Amino acid sequence: MTRRPAARGRRAAAAKRDRALLAALAGASDHLAVETDGEVVAFTHLDRIYWPAAAAFEQPAITKRDYLRYLVEVAPVLLPHARDRPLTLFRWPEGIAGRRVLEKHWAITLPAFVERVDVFSESKGRTDPYILCNNLATLLWLAHMGTLEFHMWHSRVRTDAAVDDAGDDFATSLAALQNSVLERPDYLLFDLDPFIGDLPAGMRDAPFDPAAFEKVKAIALSVRALLADIGLASLVKTSGKTGLHVIVPIVRSLRYDVVRKMASYIAARLLREHRHE
Q1: pLDDT, tens digit, for every residue of 143-189?
Q2: From CA 37, how far away is CA 140, in angstroms rounded?
Q3: In sequence order, which ranges of the chain are alpha helices (DSSP H)?
Q4: Class of the 185-277 domain?
Q5: Per-state percent for the chain, helix, strand, coil, to nearest 5
Q6: 240 to each of 72, 105, 148, 237, 274, how far by Cα in Å?
Q7: CA 31 vs CA 18, 26, 45, 47, 274: distances in Å
Q8: pLDDT at 205 over 80
Q9: Residues 112-117: contacts with CB within 8 Å, 24+ apart?
Q10: Exposure check for the chain: N or C terminus, fewer CB within 10 A?
Q11: Over the chain, what is the mean pLDDT?
């Protein structure tokens, strides 16, 4: 009987914290240190432009301050999905027009509030550390470090009843990792990219093509309809660039190799049914 009032109290406290963070970010100069969940997070260069203005879309420049405020607002929805998933990150420390840095295994000393997990690497024969984004302080610190692209594993380090036959040892050996909960994804993903072929010299990402995106939308709807036919619920979302993701939540009872075979079967069936289109 006490759970609901306690949950309401936690939500109210989180909302109060978030309002204070938003007010601090709005009123700060170019530097700021704030406390969230008992952790102090420091920000500098708050007016650095992360995304330049886009006149064609009547979009003003987006600064680090803007980005941080956005993350505070979406964190209640974002963090439950990110929790306990190892991360591969892309950073643009000077903004999207500057250099891009792939960040998997951070060499710097991390703040105490940033959780990590060691995962065995088959290619290296040893463990690699991965960051987990398990709290608001970590999310905001990653944004401060220029992280604009988050790639999350489809599996979590957390154990639950669905994976009570899997272990929680990810680090001692390849066999241990393969028998662990990290080998059990909780969703299947179809990544639909509107660009096929080689990019022009010097171009890192394919430009947005409205006609190609219309085709991708049609394919995404076809994938979703096929999934519904075989009894699988799905969600469609933008990929963050020029494509779409079709996501199928699944129980964490299957290994990655089985889930990949499922995805291949569905893709092959879709191709057969639409081979003349």
Answers
A1: 999 999 999 999 999 988 778 888 899 999 999 999 999 999 999 99
A2: 12
A3: 3-27, 64-82, 136-144, 174-178, 210-229, 256-273
A4: alpha beta
A5: 40, 25, 40
A6: 19, 23, 10, 9, 26
A7: 18, 11, 6, 9, 55
A8: no
A9: 112/39, 113/37, 113/39, 113/41, 113/137, 113/138, 113/141, 114/138, 114/141, 117/86, 117/157, 117/170
A10: N
A11: 89
Which residue, among 235, 232, 227, has the nearest Cα to 81 in the 3D structure? Answer: 235
Distances, alpha carbon 246 to alpha carbons 15, 20, 68, 145, in Å = 31, 36, 27, 29
Sequence-distant (≥ 6) Cβ neighbours of residue 242 within 8 angstroms: 193, 194, 195, 205, 206, 207, 208, 209, 212, 213
How many CB atoms sit inside 10 A of residue 42's CB?
11
Of the two residues 206 and 44, the one the predictor is more confident about is: 44
Residue range 94-111, pLDDT digits in tens = 999 999 999 998 888 899
What's at 248, amino acid-wise?
V
Summarize the confidence of residues 112-133 as an average pLDDT.
93
- Residue 202's pLDDT band (cuts 50, 70, 90): low
What is the mean pLDDT of the segment spanning 105-128?
A: 91
Tokens of 181: 């909960």
What gap in Å lies between CA 25 and CA 157, rounded to an integer?
33
Cβ–Cβ < 8 Å for 187, 208:
no
